Amino acid sequence: MAQAPGAGFNYNSGAWHLLSAILSRRTGVDTLSYARKELFAPLGIADVTWRRDPQGIPIGGYGLLMHPRDMAKIGYLYLHGGQWDGRQLLPAQWPERVFHPQVDMHLGSLRYANGWWSIPEKRAYMAVGFLRQLIVVLPDIDTVAVVTGRAHYPFGQLIDRITEAARSPGPLPADPIGSARLADRVAAAGVETRSPVAPAPALAAAISGKTFRFPENRIGLQSIKLDLTAAEPSYETTLAAAAPNGAVRRLQGPIGLDGLFRVREARDMDPVLAVKGSWVSDNSFQVIARSLLEGIVVTYVLTFNGSQVDLALEDNSGVRARLRGVAGE
Question: What is the CATH number of domain 203-328?
């Protein structure tokens, strides 16, 4: 080890994955099964998914999916020193270390302990997931807040707003109109809204079935093929191998042309994708692909000019790229 434990911080999902493997070996069951019995069942958490590596080990550094209300239970457990319903589920010293972090992350005022990030001057302690999936524990105002997100945003602003909203000298008066509006918004959020769709130009038939190939690039995209005239429109892409001796990766699936996403079912370790497309001009076709497990949303705009295609790509984690491809056999 380069440093003594607790002496420094490195963002290192691999160490947490190694811990998952060690825990599985020591307990005789995989990490998810152990967590279901010792943690999730006592908390009343039943609907949980945990991504696995090719050896079947739950990925220690990421990939645990649960409902926000169940994330809040994890926060509540820490807020109360590891106790739940009169039972000590965690050793009290474990969350206590989280509330007294010692490791300087060298990221502004952030500190680290036992997997949690904290801002000590705000007395805020956070389990931080990808694209700001957060469990925030604020002991001074006896509050747990859970948020899900699609992009990075400042921690400090969020915590300040939660703190301001939570302070009240007494119970707020009933607000039936506001409660009804909130219920409507929550219900609407669970239903996909159809986006506008423009008529397909004549070019749709001309480019359907053609494979457009790209020179070597930093995102690893090798080719794209669209079939926009079939009864079930589809896409197919090839990506460079993830490892030096690995195989080329091929992703294919349905694409919605009616303003609604179509879902590609998972295969092995490939992402679960929901994809839709629409013509934004006579020669430009937009594709939106959502990774349902990782939360990544990628927008592609393909502009066709004879045998060439210019591709502009942008995702919600900040990745941008521009590529030029050529139609081939």
Answer: 2.40.128.20
Q: What strand order describes the sheet that includes 234-239? A: 249-254, 234-239, 221-227, 211-213, 320-328, 308-315, 297-305, 284-291, 273-279, 262-264
Tell which residue, 296, 78, 308, has the closest CA to residue 203.
308
148-156: average pLDDT: 84
Q: Name 258's Cβ contacts closer than 8 Å, sequence gap at least 6.
A: 194, 197
> Is the pLDDT score of 97 beyond 70?
yes
Class of domain 13-168 (CATH, top level): alpha beta
CA separation for the pair 144, 68 (Å, rounded): 11
pLDDT at 269 over 70: no
pLDDT at 309 over 90: yes
pLDDT tens readout for residues 193-220: 999 888 999 999 999 999 999 999 999 9
CA distance 207 to 225: 9
Domain boundaries, the chain: 13-168, 203-328
Residues 6+ apart with CB under 8 A from 97: 113, 114
Strand pairing of 273-279 and 284-291? antiparallel
Is there a contact between 248 and 241 (Cβ–Cβ < 8 Å)?
yes
| Phi/psi at 85 (5° precision) | 55, 45
End-to-end distance of the chain based on CA atoms, in angstroms?
51
CA distance 16 to 129: 14
> Looking at residue 147, what is its pLDDT?
93
**In DSSP terms, which residues pair with 227 in a beta bridge?**
234
Q: How far apart are CA 272 and CA 264, in angstroms?
A: 6
Long-range contact pairs involving 290-294 (C-beta distance under 8 Å, separation at least 24) = 290/261, 292/263, 293/49, 293/51, 293/63, 293/65, 294/130
Q: Residue 240 phi/psi, 5° resolution?
A: -60, 155
Instruction: State pTM to two decimals.
Output: 0.77
Reduced 3-state DSSP string for 80-101: CCCEECCEECCCCHHHHHHCCC
